[in-house]
Amino acid sequence: MQTINQINIPQEAFDWYDEYAHGFIDRRTFLSRLAGLAVVGLSANVISAALIPNYALAEKVSFNDPDLKASYIDFESPEGHGTGRGYLVTPSTADETTPKVLVVHENRGLNPYIKDVARRLAKAGFIALAPDALHPVGGYPGNDDEGRAMQKSLERAKIEHDFIAAARFLKGYEKGSDKLGVVGFCFGGYITNMLAATLPEMVDAAVPFYGTPPHESIIGQIKAPLLLQFAEMDKRVNSKWPGYEASLKGNGINYRAHIYPGVNHGFHNDSTARYNEEAATLAWSRTLAFFNRHLK
After folding, report:
1. Can 178 be counted among the known catalytic residues?
2. Is the domain of 98 the same as that of 162?
3. Which among 129, 165, 243, 254 could bridge 225 via Cys, Cβ 3.0 to 4.6 Å?
4. Does any domain span residue 57?
5. Do 131 and 166 contact (CB within 8 A), yes or no?
6. Buried/exposed code over 200-233 (b: 16+ C-beta within 10 A; e: otherwise)
7. 160: domain CATH number?
8. Residue 87: domain span
9. Residue of 265, 268, 270, 294 with catalytic role
10. Do the domain assignments include residue 58?
11. Is 186 assigned a catalytic role?
């Protein structure tokens, strides 16, 4: 049986999946396009199954790891949905010097991959909090299609305020130091950029993975160093990068950008065929080194 990384999927399928995952086309259109691909030995069902996340593949750090303590914690969000909830993971060795990192999910809620990212950070010596934007409507439903629809049904401004509230909560959390980093993926990459601009006195380092920029009017407020991670084949997000980079340069903001060759949007997510082990490993090692340098 082929694994997701052994299937030779045409680039068009990755592009169509990106359109589908971000609401530009519906599932029927996505599957119809896949059915039209003349790929020897691969059906539309095989390709779609490879592209849609299989979260059993995403667990790098067990939720039972004895070096970690994981729990759910609520925080107040008066300008958002009133109350937020997040997955908090603390290393057993945490003390007053342990820095904190907010982990921001994609556009479908707190799925198992993002929870594992939080555990990976805790394993590396950070207190990690991964909020769930879907908490006001019952939390991540266990299904990405449903999660995506649920997140789309929520008011965008209130979601943003929930993440602002989460950052403030984590910054002031009783355990650990007062150093705060943010890392996010896709929608979470945008939120990471937005938080760096909205909370310049609070965010000490930010790592957006394939995230679009914040509003032009607030880019100049960014004070934290940025490490921006992009996928070469990600035309949608990359089209925004030249303008964003010009603004960062024009405002004298400390940043470093990496564009990983030959990989697609979502290359760090190890639960789908978009995953690229070499690029994901390099990007993650750079992320940890960046946080270690600026937060510890």
Report:
1. no
2. yes
3. 254
4. no
5. yes
6. eebbbbbbbbbbbbbeeeebeebebbbbbbbbeb
7. 3.40.50.1820
8. 66-295
9. 265
10. no
11. yes
